[in-house]
Amino acid sequence: MSEEKSLNFIEEIVENDLNSGKYKTLVTRFPPEPNGYLHIGHAKAICLNFGLTQKYGGYTNLRFDDTNPVTEKTEYVNSQQEDIKWLGFNWKNELYASDYFDELYSFAIKLIEKGLAYVDESSADEIAALKGTPTEPGQDSQYRNRSIEENLDIFTRMKNGEFSDGAYILRAKIDMASPNMLMRDPIIYRIKHAEHHRTGNKWCIYPMYDFAHGQSDSIENITHSICTLEYVSHRELYDWFIKKLEIFPSKQYEFARLNLTSTVMSKRKLLQLVNDNLVNGWDDPRMPTISGLRRRGFTPKSVREFCERIGIAKRENLIELSLLEFCIREDLNKSANRVMAVLDPIKLVITNYEKGTEDLIGENNPEAEGGTRVIPFSNELWIEREDFMEVPAKKWFRLAPGAMVRLKFAYIVKCEDFVKDENGNVTEIHCTYIPESKSGNDTSGINVKGTIHWVSVQHAKTAEIRLYDRLFTSETPDAEEGDFKDYLNPESLTVLPNAFIEPALADADLDSRYQFIRKGYFCLDKDSTAEKLVFNRTVTLKDTFKKPK
RNA sequence: UGUCCGAUAGUAUAAGGGUAGUACGACAGUUUUUGGUACUGUUUGUCUUGGUUCGAAUCCAGGUCGGACAACCA
What top-tier enzyme class does this entry carry (predicted)? Predict the structure, then answer.
């Protein structure tokens, strides 16, 4: 076995378990709660769980952890499935914790019969008061020693709907003095007269997370139940239920969740951004959701690559956004066709060009066998306003009075003059071109430092272009003083309603990815119509040019 | 003043008693019809104090720092 790459700690555990014969087949699961959209942190968990069974054989189930009917919706089930498929993974079984409600109920009965669970009718406040604190032990509830018969009777009546929400709860009988708060007689069933997205009104009692997750894993014969670090202290309970119920011993392993700079990752906060209309929905391209990244133009491959590069470990981490950007640039550099678009136009007139128009040939992608296309050229072009400086900075290789640049795929031009309006703004640049300098056939012998992009005025199409930047101005918005929303970046979205694009872009579809030469990677947005194309900037090109001060 | 988890360059992540390596970032250079790409180079690290050992990032003990835990959420 050649060791090309080192293993992460979970892969080591899996390899050991497989090599020792502890398990014949690896079974993992991805267990989202359908109460929100999946984000890049979930992508890390998805890649881990599905990646493990791809690498070592076995399979991964998709199991919706739907034990709380008031927050869960079918809309989320659907979006979550779409996101997992988009990432490129296939689950073996589509399952729901709610599939096991009958079985979970009988597990509860079994616990009661063993004297390991009891019905408590204390109020939520009373229960909290007796729970103790992390540094002080709790105290037993006065209902802790009900008879098994009475517990059975009340629990059955809870199920039958005889009581209102909160009147009774079922608790595991463990140890109110445990240093682990979760072992202090945790609540395992509560009454909720709520309609469930799958089981409808069949149930009015629902199991808590701790009484559903491990047992669901066990029912499915999950060998390695992988979750994030905040569940470490749940492991003791997880194992306790499995042991007392004498069921398949799934094992839980925890890794550190992903944190990304300049964004937030908690579903609660993302929901707030959506509900407060601070972004335009869950799939707003500025959101770290999988649907947001997809709309922004990220490829599944780039997201998988990112998840691969960040690694799996147990220490808290904060990944720099630049790594995500690297991953998408790396992918798109190889695959995206190069086209020209002018975002902030200024007119350039070639005063000695008398051919009218001319079709030039553009190479689609110098990094791939991308073929070529026709690009119309004429004596009036749009170029980028920022590519001209009236008073050039040092090391400026673009347009300036008397300076020469190459027009990409076309000719070398020399700036002869420029026009200003009454406010002193440059409105037009006048150049002469060098006929012998045509791209691919340059006999002029002239070498220029700078090459700029352009679009022929008479052939240009207009498009709306949306530029995105970091959602937050702080790298750690949820660690800042005050509300995280105070750190939203007011410039996270810039809309350019009238940019000019080369005519070939009229054929763009939602799956196309482009590099707008010198400007970044872009894709068509779903808001596009036949009359108006809308492009999203996925990411800028890396820019090593030091802006002159 | 509890229990649990963790600590390696700016950020991540390897090295499992024997040369501290890789990636991203940053910086510099070469190439270039994208100030892109590619290539080259530079920079910066084992939390601390002891112990075991010929030898410790690694094993042990104490400390420090960070995180988690007191929802009828997951």
Answer: ligase
